Amino acid sequence: MFLIAGLGNPGEKYEKSRHNVGWIVLDRFAKDFSFGAYVKSAKNMGELSESRIGKEKVVILRPHTMMNNSGKAVSTLIKSKKAAQNLVVIHDDLDMPLGKFKIVYNRGSGGHKGVRSVKKALGTNEFLRIKVGISPSTLSGKVKKPKGEKAVLNFIIGEFKEAERKKIKKVAKDISEALRSIILDGRELAQTDWN
To answer: Residue numbers for the site described as Stabilizes the basic form of H active site to accept a proton (predicted)?
Structure first.
């Protein structure tokens, strides 16, 4: 079984925020591969849906624990370090430009509190992550992220502008295909093809 968790915060207030890009991407993947409607699960602390891609069973999860406690929800479904190798966590990344993504495996949290929570709950770094860039950039591609804790918080919980939403739609489509590749072709080939 593969578990794909899109990190975000529950509630209408956060629905379209930059911090919820994990949910936005997950919803695109669910649509592309005919997942059913999400079902709320108190036991799993979030919303779940499942489908098959090829012969593989795939479960998708939108945690409802708030971002910084995402590990609590993920750990209800991933019970061992071996199972964690079939986990993909999708999350926002301030250090990457909007419209870009990167697949990483067995890496530190990079300061992302949601990822840190997952790592702590599972006791391992050995899971895949798809980092989705949310920051504006210069023409040369240099990231222009906000400075200072308050500015960062306001930025990540702020909504994407219309032009930014178009970029997110495009990158979500690419990530959806990259997820299919991870499931059917394996992590290493997917990283080679999409990074």
So the answer is: 92
